[in-house]
Design brief:
alpha/beta; four-stranded antiparallel β-sheet; 11 helices; globular; disordered N terminus; hydrolase; Alkaline_phosphatase_core_sf; Sulfatase; metal-binding; Arylsulfatase
Length: 514
């Protein structure tokens, strides 16, 4: 009897030792991975799944929406990039702290020890990574040589400006105040595609030291619109066309490296596209019917597909929350696309990037989480990217600091179809300091007779479908008027008073304590 038992154990051990190692698989109770795909200047009307008239194929994003949740009333905090990115990562209205973008070689917009989404997830055991566009500042002054006093003259928008040349910085030093200072474990990118320094940054150091001042590329001009290039330090032969392919490869590599990782991961993948310079690579040209911009959107969609394929390759797609959205509406070149290609990046909304009208901040928003979020589900709930912090903290069982006050709402029950009751009653829209809007239910109030910040072309003004505002403020009912054609301020003065008071109350209520 004892011999038989020993023989059975021996055979069992032998079989076990010969079994090949299994690929790491997530378990039902493990923390979900998170990927946030953040497009740059992509309009609501660019995605084919929510605009049947779109001239741009977006197969991977359409499929993502079919497999997950499409939020049709989602908004960025601002109509420009730096404020929206700050709001997403901090869970806080940008206008409580600033309105403008971070300019060339600008400092960080974050306060010391500020609570952020990567901080929260890092404290819950996540490996946090940022790849691509940053545009939230570094402390460049910390590496500037104070003994270097001679600035260099450059040209920006036909104006002479003085800038510090590449030689004014000690590029061997660590650059403080970047992604690693707010909770990311790693970073790779070029900072901002059209802002200096023009070099790769890995974690908190440049990979190659800039040696010259780039004022304008000598060849390979943008295929549509302008370069929107700011002069500044650059490495020799910097190639703008390599930015999107490079960060895409880095993201794919990052995902593959997580195959045997013991920690869950959070990847903040901030694309440089389809922001100007509009530079689709050659293999993507002609893939859309909306010109080079449409091809650039198509290439961005392809990049999403490559990263999602890598996620499937490591068997992690079943337990990963995948989010796709954009930092604001499409750039002003969108007007010319209407004329040249019959493609409206803002469809069905009024306005473009920077504007307080819906086209400036009403953005695509898709979220997928297999077996958790119902496939093909649509939500019309009012939602802001500010709400990601609270929602993801809830879904990952991450702790928020005690008495943490912020502007972020928890939509986890909405995403999981556990509750259909409205979560947000109202939302403030803003870009620059002069104009604010507030949304409450179907009503939207703008505290100005004009909701534009971006100048509309003359031909568009002459043939536009929008009525000229006669009142000093604007009031729209978005249920009946998505395109914000009819100003109802004079017809509903009490509603104007109600929303104006709600806006003032939001502006005067300070929520920042952590």
């Amino acid at each position: 009897m004892k011999i038989s038992v020993y023989l059975f154990v021996f055979i069992l051990v032998g079989l076990t030792s010969c079994k090949p190692p299994e690929t790491k698989r997530v378990t039902e109770n493990s923390k979900p991975n998170i990927i946030i795909f953040y497009a740059d200047d992509m309009g609501f009307g660019d995605l084919a799944i929510q605009n049947p008239q779109s001239k741009i194929p977006t197969p991977h994003l359409d499929q993502l929406a079919k497999e997950g949740l499409l939020m049709t009333d989602a908004h960025s905090s601002s109509g420009v990039c730096s404020p929206s990115r700050y709001a997403l990562l901090s869970g806080r209205y940008h206008w409580r702290d600033f309105n403008d973008i971070v300019h060339s070689m600008g400092s960080s917009v974050f306060k010391e020890n500020q609570v952020t989404l990567p901080h929260i997830l890092s404290q819950n055991g996540y490996h946090t990574a940022a790849i691509g566009k940053w545009h939230l500042g570094w402390d460049w002054e910390a590496i500037r040589k104070k003994e270097f006093t001679q600035k260099e003259q450059a040209v920006l928008r036909n104006k002479n400006i003085d800038i510090w040349p590449a030689q004014a910085y000690d590029w061997n030093k660590t650059i403080p105040g970047g992604p690693l200072s707010i909770g990311f474990d790693s970073y790779f990118g070029d900072g901002t595609i059209n802002f200096p320094p023009y070099t790769w940054i890995e974690n908190n150091k440049v990979t190659v030291a800039p040696t010259l001042t780039l004022q304008h590329p000598e060849e390979d001009f943008a295929l549509e619109g302008n370069w929107e290039l700011r002069p500044g330090p650059a490495v020799k032969d910097w190639d703008f066309y390599k930015v999107l392919p490079t960060v895409t490869r880095k993201a794919v590599t990052f995902i593959k490296d997580q195959e045997q990782a013991e920690k869950p991961f959070f990847l903040y993948m901030a694309f440089p596209s389809p922001h100007a310079p509009i530079i689709p690579n050659e293999e993507f040209r002609g893939k859309s019917e909306a010109g080079p911009y449409g091809d650039f959107v198509y290439q961005t969609d392809d990049a999403v597909g490559q990263i999602l394929e890598a996620l499937k390759g490591i068997n992690a797609d079943e337990n990963t929350i995948v989010i796709f959205t954009s930092d604001n509406g499409s750039e002003k070149y969108a007007y010319e696309r209407i004329k040249n290609y019959d493609h409206d990046s803002s469809h069905p909304f009024r306005g473009v990037k920077r504007d307080i009208y819906e086209g400036g901040h009403h953005v695509p928003f898709i979220v997928k989480w297999p077996n958790k979020i119902k496939p093909g589900f649509k939500s019309t709930q009012l939602f802001s990217q500010i709400d990601l912090l609270n929602t993801l903290a809830s879904l990952t069982n991450s702790d928020l600091p005690k008495d943490f006050q912020h502007d972020s709402y928890n939509f986890s029950d909405v995403w999981l179809a556990k509750n259909s009751s409205p979560v947000r009653e109202q939302l403030v829209h803003n870009t620059w300091t002069t104009k604010y809007a507030i949304r409450k239910g179907d009503w939207l109030y703008i505290n100005n007779k004009d909701g534009y910040h971006t100048r509309t072309p003359k031909w568009f003004k002459e043939g536009q479908r929008f009525k000229t505002a006669k009142d000093t403020v604007q009031l729209f009912n978005l249920k009946n008027d998505k395109g914000q054609n009819n100003n109802l301020a004079s017809q509903f003065p009490e509603k104007v008073k109600e929303l104006a008071a709600a806006l003032r109350e939001e502006q005067q209520t300070e929520t920042f304590k952590n």
